Amino acid sequence: MNDIHQPLIEPAASLRSRRDVLKLFGLGLALPAAASIITACSNAASATTAAQMADMSSASATATAGVDWQAMDRMHMDGIKAFPAKTAAYGNQPLQPHLENGVKVFELTAKVIQWEVTPGKMAEAWAYNNQVPGPEIRVTEGDKVRVVVHNQLPESTAVHWHGVMVPNNMDGVPGLTQDPITPGSTFTYEFTVKNPGSHMYHAHYNSTIQVGKGMLGAFIIEPKDRSKDPAYDHDYTLILNDQLGGFTLNGKSFPATQPLTATVGEKIRIRYMNEGQMIHPMHLHGLPQLTFAKDGWNLPQPYMNDTVNIAPGERWDVIVDCTDPGIWAFHCHILGHAESEQGMFGMVTALIVK
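Below the sequence we write its predicted structure tokens.
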């Protein structure tokens, strides 16, 4: 789905290179001929004068996709003033279980809903419990867990517990470990949680569509021995997706994303989870991140950085020591996922340190 904030015109250099490729290969030119053309182009480029290059640079800088600089300033500032913009509902809300003979029982209902990605921008979502991402399931190492899944979708589905060590028949892959959960039916998953850490759950049936449209969520297993993890004051989860409604953090695009907040001297834990199909390097301005866990496993040697590169399916855990007050920008550093001539959009939020 195209985001209204995406650049409107493809850069001319990209179009030229694409046409060159079509000429070289689409017309069936032999390799020697192709090499000659490439050499000729290189020589022609070398012959361009410095003055011509300066003129070309100046002309391209006068406008971006036909937007004058005053209009661009207004669009950028309007987005920032709206942040954090309110929307009808939010995902990743804690799901409370009920107890049955010592087992923690959770209920998930999969259905089609309309989801507000940014104010007024609706998208069809396939959601758990009417929210995107689905509700956060949080348990403790050693807990006995039962998850009852009700399928109200127009097609079959299943749930995979991504990173969670479960018996094979609970792994949620139709055809390998279970039959599909057909429309209108219910399936119960039951297992004892073993490996603590930041994990996920998501559909594993027609998953490009089902996960892309929102059937995903956080599955967090707290360790019995909390001394294994660094100390922190606040715990945040950021689930990344790049399909439903464009580029999103916890189901929302800027300016509807929610800020992370802390007070000077506090430490926050951020659990990055990538449920999209692209890599997203998450960059925090001003404050370094101590990366200490990967896919739920604590690293033998934590390390400092300011940009954490999260591939599809990965989970990374970091600690941020909030030493300096201010509103610190926080975004995917593939800039086409975060900013255009129309302003910031997509995978952008802020860490506000008071």
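The first strand starts at residue 98 and ends at 100.
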